[in-house]
Amino acid sequence: MQKKHLLLAVLVTMVWGLNFPITKLGLATLDPLLLTALRFTLAALPWVFFIRRPQVAVWWLVAYGLIFGVAMWALINLGIELGVPPGTAALLIQFSAFFTLGWGVVLFRERLSRGQGVGVLLAASGVMLIVWSSPGEATTLGCMLLLVSAFSWSVGNVIIKRSGVREVFAFVVWASLFPPIPLFLLTWWAHGSAPFTSLVTQLDRVSVFSLMFQVYGATHFCYWGWNLLLREYPVSRVAPLSLLIPVFGVLGSMAILGHRVGITEGLSIALILSALAAGLFKKTIPPVEAVQVRTP
């Protein structure tokens, strides 16, 4: 991976990691589904009026928008709302890296190295330890929702590869058109009109900052950068980079929310980060058919 792309990956994972505790700040006053709906509304509008639609089939935009808006970020916010600490949420979502490695093998004929296989087992052990030690049924449900969102992220990664999109920023903006309506409807179905009627009084400086960070940092910048990397490199090369997100997520939770890492969470973090040392960043065995990597 070129140095400029590696630097981009570090910046993206840092912003994504910080997004978890910053999202927690917004959830202190806003409903999780409504917060997600507002995030993608602002990610799409007014930008779709100034940015040309990417040259891909509309159904790719619809599929990606619903997956990363509804099936991913709405579930992440619900999981945090149910009591999963932001740092732990950042850790659980990284299981997407291993789902994505599996998709790379099944769909793109990529082969895993022995180190990657060991890394999958280590990370899976860390995730299972978090779920097993979660306090209470609500938090356990939150952990399950985060694992579903991790799977959804892996599907989104596959969509990026399959669509062959080149205009990655335009793709993110236009895909953001599709999550808000189902999210607004789900909010109404779950809570009625209360979240909408109280929205004006609940929007304070902290919640507005949280929302803006989610829109312009975690959505526009991060998905542009991440999808660019997916466009240029095999999914099995890019996916493991997301394991840096929990590092920034835990550090951000400690700095912003005063979160303290317990023994179990510390062990889980150690297991998942050990996946990196086991070779997840090493070059994957190439597929049977050589694929030329494009560079901008």
Report on the structure:
- 74% of the residues lie in helices and 0% in strands.
- The chain is mainly alpha-helical and 296 residues long.
- The chain has one domain (3-280).
- Helix 2 packs antiparallel against helix 9 and helix 4 runs antiparallel to helix 14 (245-256).
- It is globular.
- The relative contact order is 0.23.
- Mean pLDDT is 82; it is low at 281-296.
* Class from helix and strand fractions: mainly alpha
End-to-end distance, in Å? 13 Å
The structural domain count equals: 1
Major beta sheet summary:
none
Helix percent band: over 70%
* Number of helical segments with 4 or more residues: 15
**Helix-strand string:** HHHHHHHHHHHHHHH
Structural descriptors:
15 helices; 74% helix; mainly alpha; single chain; globular; 296 residues; disordered C terminus
Task: Write a brief structural summary.
This protein has 296 residues and is an all-alpha fold.
Furnish the topology, listing elements before pairings:
Elements: H1 3-27, H2 32-44, H3 58-81, H4 86-92, H5 96-108, H6 114-132, H7 137-163, H8 168-175, H9 180-191, H10 194-197, H11 199-202, H12 205-232, H13 235-238, H14 245-256, H15 263-280
Helix pairs in contact: 1-4, 1-12, 1-14, 2-3, 2-9, 2-12, 3-7, 3-8, 4-14, 5-7, 6-15, 8-12
